[in-house]
Amino acid sequence: MTVKIKTRDRILQASLKMFNEQGERNVSTNHIASQLGMSPGNLYYHFSNKAEIIFELFNGYQRAIADSVVLPEERLLTFKDTVRYFEMIFQGLWDYRFLHRDLEHLLNENDALREQYLTFSLITMSAGKDIIKGMNTSGIIKANTTEIDALLLNLWVILTSWSSFLQSIDVQNAMPGAMDPWALKRGIYQVICLIEPYGTDAARLDLPELKASYLGGVDTDPLLLFQLPSGVSK
Amino acid sequence: MTVKIKTRDRILQASLKMFNEQGERNVSTNHIASQLGMSPGNLYYHFSNKAEIIFELFNGYQRAIADSVVLPEERLLTFKDTVRYFEMIFQGLWDYRFLHRDLEHLLNENDALREQYLTFSLITMSAGKDIIKGMNTSGIIKANTTEIDALLLNLWVILTSWSSFLQSIDVQNAMPGAMDPWALKRGIYQVICLIEPYGTDAARLDLPELKASYLGGVDTDPLLLFQLPSGVSK
């Protein structure tokens, strides 16, 4: 007996892939149905419009992020724990990158999504704050309340803007998807660098190795990103 | 004799205002002509299509940014100098905020803009690097090469994403433009906080006052941004 993916899930998977690769605005429900070799009527049996598909995909994104930011209950946080959080968050952001690339438009067009996104933002920011406070309690970082607040907001902007930033470089170089393989890791490297100055001496001992693993031997100079250094290939 | 603004400049001014307020995709050349009470034919006499208007506006943006990032020739940089740079850059970004809100789309649609934008990115990143290195030379900050690179890239992402971030909060709260008056200042505050950990003890003496002036008495908690704190009004 073969495992058969439900039609509804096939529609969601294909939509996500097409939205991420082609941009949500360029993909209609007819395109999705055609891609799956199904009739538009069959698709409409599962989702009455594109907004419903987007809303359901957003729910998947929200679950992925919520599952990523759970504090360990019976021990203190380590720097690697927190990097692992950011890795999972980045992965979620990347898997659903169409959402943040054209967020204003999506929120303007979709009242249900707008409401849900506000709740999501508040929950995620709140969880992020708990993580940063937890790092402070564990003695990984040393930061006062205003520093934690500023760090949290800068983290939020970097995380939610990273895929748009990468895309803008790709588009400038007319090389779509050129940086996919190492782009996520570079994002995590940037986030580690954002937190590093607050790190305590003990916690910073592990950082050079950790940073090197995310940098993957690529030069740190951001100017090279815009010039797509040789040796960096898809 | 009254001063008369040239028609060409009137078109550019009206376009910029409409693009910023309504989003570039929602504004056609017919809308712009109508707003100015001129015939589409008169507008086409000056610009043969919307792409030309956008390209010309981008040139204005590029000049504004280029004029902002010039190092003082005969003295060392101070922290206030650098904050002043970021203030001018933020103002440029804000004045032309339609560009960064929908950058991918604009670059995809407009080959001339894409080429120009890449050059602009390289020049601006390079100038930004000179400023950060200058801060290091002046003893305002203490950072090694990899720290300077990471800081520069994080600055670029925060600066170019700030107006999209604000817009996403406004949209979530269904209150367009609600945060205009203090939103720029908060962005500058965030940038100061990004650089602060690298600041030397002497340079940091001025920072509490400087930060307070950009914060304007608003609570630092980012969660409140999403909830639009009472007392913050348009």
Write the layout of secondary structure elements.
The structure is a homodimer of 234-residue chains.
Chain A: H1 7-22, H2 29-35, H3 40-46, H4 50-68, H5 79-95, H6 97-101, H7 103-109, H8 111-137, H9 145-172, H10 180-195, H11 201-204, H12 207-215, H13 222-226
Helix pairs in contact in A: 1-4, 4-5, 4-8, 5-10, 7-8, 8-9, 9-10, 10-12
Question: What does this protein structure show overall?
Answer:
The structure is a homodimer of 234-residue chains. Chain A is mainly alpha-helical. Helix content of chain A is 71%, strand content 0%. The radius of gyration of chain A is 20 Å and the shape is globular. The mean pLDDT of chain A is 87. Chains A and B meet through helix 7, helix 8, helix 9, helix 10 and helix 13 of A and helix 7, helix 8, helix 9, helix 10 and helix 13 of B.
Overall mean pLDDT of chain A? 87
Q: Count of helical segments of chain A?
A: 13
The largest β sheet of chain A comes out as:
none
Most extensive interface: pair and counts? Answer: A-B, 53 and 53 residues
Tally of distinct domains of chain A: 2
Looking at this protein, list some descriptive labels.
homodimer; about 230 residues; mainly alpha; Tetracycline Repressor, domain 2; about 0% strand
Quick recap of the structure?
Chain A is mostly helical and 234 residues long. In chain A, 71% of the residues lie in helices and 0% in strands.
